[in-house]
Structure to design on (1195 residues):
């Protein structure tokens, strides 16, 4: 498999499929339809440009005719008229070119904008489960790159192809008018250039792919070996790695040089054709015989003839690539979102906070049950802790309450209403989620708390941070709430990230809370702040916790002990300890250390 | 031209290619300059030439000769100059890799691999481009413009003077374009990166967004960025189209100027009263005028090149500076002056008041460790995450410099040892089970120049991974890593153990490398260690006490210090920390319902 095919394989997403040209066009129509005017206008302007481009050499050749004709007192006037015409047309031509390019560029950028918005919105509507099945990188490429590639197809590749075709045909017609015989000769050269260019494009495309393959091969080797240098050094294998590197290094050099060689033939050859055609113009032109002015016209037209022909060949090769991008983009847009509101789902503004699981069965895939027949009731304002070994299903329960996933069997109810009867947005707005690995976005502390919602006031932000004990550390930062947050929040400690996550949740005024406690090592001081703020947060409403802190389980109204997706026992801390059952052992293992 | 200690030698190596390329370029430049002359001749003498096909044939023949010379010349300069520039790139790349292999773990600790990768890719490309296209631009800018200018002046100095003003504008414009456009280009790239990063972060943190019902806010934020991208792109297009259009307009003005004045000169000359400037009559024919126009056409490219060379060179200089800094990095871990070669290593290891602090950190990772590992002993190391287990064994490989007199192998101070001989004597199965993207056979036989298949199988058996490997369709030829089969964590760990065993080194270190394998496999491997490494020093770091309890001695680490060192039986009596570890482990088995989790 060559590199391109492999990359395409890697880039593939769920739902990618082949599309017929017809299907591609019908998907594209809405985008183009909106820019119909711009595209037609620019095609018209292009036609004008091509027209002027053809007239200018003619004017120049007239100059020769006038000067080679009878020189009298009208000559000077004729010359100046031509020069004036040349200058005016030339400047106008560039003005029109500017206008035309901008009309097209703007239209193209509008299309990119609209496509990006549509794709982004579509992706946002997909469920957590769908997200898990799609590589983030490939989604990003679709939003960022493929949109531009598809827009380019319409506003650059196709339009330029048309423009080049018009030029070639226009020049050919005017050459035919001047002299069919000479034109036919030159057509021979032009066709040779076109055919050579087309095949050269195919061949050099292969060379380029090979070059890219070797380059990415070397880059993979380098990044692997720079990261694993320790192993190489410990095993004393520097010499061998050096030899491996040399092979790859030479491969690249040779691959690049192969491209150089291809161009070292192609470019000079096209040039040879060009000068050859000039020679033919002189020779055939004078033996026909044509007038000097006509030969000059041919001479000037020739340079306007070879470039478009090379471009056309290249553009034909480009179309195929752009179509693949379009196919990928439209395939993604065709994937329907998985978790959506039922038509009869309703908005709920306030919840009492009673939560009930009735015989819930859940599997991420197939029959691989994560939860097996789980039933429990949480009364309003209670705090419930879920405990159990890794993989017992604790975190899954929390995710189901907010409909990150759909359950297969059973029912989940809030205030005795099935959660699928409630609009997802109102459900999630009511439930404040504090997840295990706190995800911070790059930006500022403020933007991470408000999540780009500008309706929060400074006072609200500050009081939320006060509430969860986050303000002392935030206010000790040089820029306070405007302090920069690096990617993933790596410039904050695990404890600080926890506090920020609490503040973020409190700021959004939840009525029910779910908390997946982090296991990370947190320094004692911050740990105390966290415990203290958790005590306060508990009072907001019903709270469900996957607990890793002793203090959390000690203060819970009810503890639900899970093993392999089933509830083993429940009760409060003291009662469960007395039972000396599974909880007792778990307690010894996971929590007893914290007593020290 | 670009000079510096690290590139000068390439001039010596490739001077012939450069010379040939430059000569070819000059020949092409000169040949190109002939063509307008023929156009002029045809225009002026068309009526004569029509009847004198011999003369016409000569002219056309000469054009064809020029065309052929150009064809050959162009091919030659491409082949020779780019031969040099690609060779220089390959040469620098090799030097850099050789350097990379000599740099110590501390360097890699402090320098991001991403940065080094950038030097290897974009910086080398920048330099290579300068030696390739940069050379072409410099030669053309000088020789093509001189060759054309000489012809122009010979034809008509006054017209040349007239034509030079707008042409000069092109140089200025070219320099401006380059400066403005590269700034705009960066801006455009920056906005694109912002869009890319935003989408990337949004999709990665989608759970948070959904849990706070912020999809709409995010869409609005994205819209702003997408809008900004739209604007910046339009702005960029506007500027680049504008620059193009201005150059074209300058050219239109130039041609109009030349045709206007030239037409007047030709008219006056043809009507018998040539214009006289400074005592010299201007004798210009219509053919001469068009010859002149042809020269102007040839002058555009070198003028644009002239404008761009400066900034191209400064970019290449920046790249060379970064690469030179890398190549000049001092190597900190190197052989002492009179290195002691370790031979017939028995495998005795002694820590004497050993303290180690990682470069760039404040507190030591290990402090005041004193203990002796007898030759041939099997040693277990246990302790919590961050207690210093890996540091303890890593110090054996001389990846960092350590204090003299604190660590001895077979009684020789590690700082006096010949590094290669030390590394020959130790084998290592790392914690992160790093494998190369290569055949499994080659991975296992990494320590040998040529893999011996039987030994590979033996090692695979030792690590209890033989059946897995032979279960793959390609067996030992299976390629691991991104481009091949993805091995599970446990399989990688075992291949890594096999790789260490294959070396048959006097000292074998295994860093927590059975954490992702199931109980049965672990037991097999432990049994194999006991049998096949008998009498050879073997150190096993483990997260579970059960992995090491049958070893000769166990080192218990806590917060960078050795808290106990002895056999399982001794430690059960004497070390409370060890007892607690054993107790917790028993509990863990019960809690997890007897099922050991994988991974």
């Amino acid at each position: 498999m060559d590199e391109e095919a492999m990359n395409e394989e890697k880039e593939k997403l769920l739902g990618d499929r082949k599309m017929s040209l017809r299907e591609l066009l019908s998907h594209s129509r809405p985008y183009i339809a909106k820019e119909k005017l711009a595209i037609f206008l620019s095609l018209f302007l292009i036609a004008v440009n091509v027209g002027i481009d053809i007239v200018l050499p003619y004017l120049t050749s007239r100059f020769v005719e006038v000067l080679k004709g009878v020189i009298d007192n009208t000559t000077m006037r004729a010359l100046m008229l031509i020069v004036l015409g040349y200058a005016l047309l030339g400047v106008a031509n560039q003005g029109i070119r500017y206008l035309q390019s901008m009309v097209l560029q703007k239209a193209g950028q509008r299309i990119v904008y609209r496509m990006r918005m549509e794709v982004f919105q579509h992706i946002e509507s997909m469920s957590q489960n769908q997200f898990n099945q799609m590589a983030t990188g490939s989604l990003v490429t679709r939003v960022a790159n493929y949109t531009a590639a598809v827009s380019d197809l319409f506003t650059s590749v196709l339009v330029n192809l048309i423009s080049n075709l018009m030029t070639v045909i226009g020049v050919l017609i005017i050459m035919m008018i001047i002299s069919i015989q000479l034109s036919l000769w030159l057509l021979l050269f032009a066709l040779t250039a076109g055919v050579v260019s087309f095949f050269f494009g195919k061949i050099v495309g292969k060379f380029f792919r090979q070059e890219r393959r070797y380059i990415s091969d070397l880059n993979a080797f380098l990044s692997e070996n720079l990261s694993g240098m320790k192993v190489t050094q410990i095993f004393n294998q520097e010499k061998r790695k050096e030899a491996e590197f040399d092979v790859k290094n030479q491969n690249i050099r040779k691959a690049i040089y192969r491209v150089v060689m291809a161009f070292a033939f192609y470019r000079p050859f096209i040039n040879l054709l060009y000068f050859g055609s000039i020679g033919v113009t002189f020779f055939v032109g004078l033996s026909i015989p044509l007038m000097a002015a006509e030969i000059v016209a041919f001479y000037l037209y020739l340079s306007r003839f070879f470039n478009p022909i090379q471009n056309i060949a290249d553009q034909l090769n480009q179309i195929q690539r752009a179509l693949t991008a379009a196919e990928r983009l439209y395939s993604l847009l065709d994937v329907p979102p998985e978790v959506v509101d039922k038509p009869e789902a309703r908005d709920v503004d306030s919840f009492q906070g009673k939560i009930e699981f009735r015989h819930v069965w859940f599997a991420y895939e197939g029959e691989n049950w994560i939860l097996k027949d789980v039933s429990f009731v949480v009364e309003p304002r209670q705090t419930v802790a879920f405990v159990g070994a890794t993989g017992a299903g604790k975190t899954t329960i929390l995710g189901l309450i907010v409909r990150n996933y759909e359950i297969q069997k059973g029912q989940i109810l809030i205030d005795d209403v099935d959660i699928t009867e409630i609009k997802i947005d109102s459900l999630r707005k009511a439930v404040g989620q504090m997840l295990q690995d706190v995800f911070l976005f790059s930006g500022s502390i403020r933007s991470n708390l408000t999540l780009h919602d500008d309706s929060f006031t400074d006072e609200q932000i500050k009081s939320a941070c006060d509430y969860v004990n986050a303000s002392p550390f935030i206010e000790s930062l040089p820029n306070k709430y405007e302090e920069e947050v690096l990617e993933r929040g790596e410039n904050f400690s695990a404890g600080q990230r926890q506090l920020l996550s609490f503040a973020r949740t409190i700021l959004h005024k939840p009525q029910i809370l779910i908390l997946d406690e982090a296991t990370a090592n947190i320094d004692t001081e911050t740990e105390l702040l966290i415990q203290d703020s958790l005590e306060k947060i508990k009072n907001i409403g019903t709270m469900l916790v996957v607990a890793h802190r002793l203090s959390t389980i000690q203060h819970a109204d009810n503890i639900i002990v899970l093993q392999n997706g089933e509830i083993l026992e429940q009760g409060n801390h003291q009662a469960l300890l007395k039972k000396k059952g599974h909880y007792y052992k778990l307690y010894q293992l996971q929590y007893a250390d914290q007593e020290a | 031209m670009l000079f510096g200690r690290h590139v000068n030698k390439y001039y010596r190596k490739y001077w012939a290619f450069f010379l040939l390329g430059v000569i070819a370029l000059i020949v092409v430049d000169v040949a190109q300059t002939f063509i307008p002359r023929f156009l002029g001749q045809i225009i002026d003498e068309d009526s004569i030439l029509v009847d004198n096909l011999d003369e016409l044939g000569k002219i056309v023949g000469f054009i064809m000769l020029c065309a052929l010379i150009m064809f050959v010349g162009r091919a030659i300069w491409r082949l020779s100059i780019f031969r040099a520039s690609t060779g220089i790139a390959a040469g620098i790349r090799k030097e850099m890799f050789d350097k990379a292999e000599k740099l110590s773990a501390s360097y890699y600790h402090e320098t991001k691999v991403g940065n080094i990768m950038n030097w290897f890719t974009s910086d080398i490309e920048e330099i290579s481009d300068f030696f390739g296209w940069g050379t072409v631009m410099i030669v053309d800018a000088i020789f093509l413009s001189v060759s054309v200018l000489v012809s122009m002046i010979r034809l008509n100095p006054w017209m040349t003077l007239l034509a030079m003003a707008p042409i000069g504008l092109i140089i200025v414009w070219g320099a401006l374009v380059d400066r403005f456009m590269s700034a705009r280009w960066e801006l455009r790239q920056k906005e694109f990166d912002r869009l890319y990063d935003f989408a990337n972060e949004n999709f990665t943190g989608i759970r948070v967004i959904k849990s706070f019902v912020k999809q709409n806010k995010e869409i609005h934020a994205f819209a702003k960025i997408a809008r900004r991208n739209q604007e910046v792109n339009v702005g960029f297009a506007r500027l680049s189209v504008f620059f193009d259009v201005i150059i074209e307009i300058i050219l239109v003005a130039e041609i109009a100027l030349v045709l206007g004045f030239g037409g007047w000169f030709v008219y006056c000359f043809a009507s018998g009263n040539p214009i006289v400037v400074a005592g010299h009559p201007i004798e210009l024919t219509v053919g001469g005028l068009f010859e002149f126009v042809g020269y102007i056409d040839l002058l555009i490219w070198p003028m644009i090149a002239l404008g761009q060379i400066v900034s191209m060179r400064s970019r290449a200089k920046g790249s060379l500076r970064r690469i030179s800094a890398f190549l000049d990095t001092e190597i900190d871990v190197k052989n002492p002056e009179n290195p002691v070669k370790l031979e017939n290593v028995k495998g005795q290891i002694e820590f004497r008041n050993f303290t180690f602090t990682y470069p760039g950190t404040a507190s030591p990772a290990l402090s005041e460790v004193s203990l002796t590992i007898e030759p041939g002993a099997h040693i277990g190391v246990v302790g919590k995450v961050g207690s210093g287990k890996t540091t303890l064994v890593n110090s054996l490989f001389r990846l960092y410099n350590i204090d003299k007199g604190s660590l001895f192998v077979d009684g020789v101070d590690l700082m006096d040892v010949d590094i290669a001989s030390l590394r020959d004597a130790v084998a290592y199965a790392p914690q992160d089970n790093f494998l190369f993207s290569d055949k499994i056979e080659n991975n296992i036989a990494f320590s040998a120049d040529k893999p011996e298949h039987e030994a590979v199988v033996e090692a695979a058996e030792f690590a209890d991974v033989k059946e897995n490997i032979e279960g793959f369709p390609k067996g030992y030829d299976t390629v691991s890593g991104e481009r091949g089969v993805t091995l599970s964590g446990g399989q990688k760990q075992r291949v890594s153990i096999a790789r260490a065993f294959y070396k048959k080194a006097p000292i074998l270190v295994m860093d927590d490398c059975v954490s992702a394998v199931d109980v049965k496999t672990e037991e097999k491997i432990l049994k194999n260690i006991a049998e096949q490494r008998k009498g050879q020093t073997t150190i096993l770091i483990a997260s579970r006490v059960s992995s090491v309890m049958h070893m000769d001695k166990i080192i218990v680490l806590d917060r960078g210090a050795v808290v106990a060192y002895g056999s399982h039986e001794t430690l059960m009596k004497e070390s409370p920390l060890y007892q607690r570890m054993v107790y917790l482990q028993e509990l863990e088995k019960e809690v997890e319902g007897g099922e050991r989790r994988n991974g």
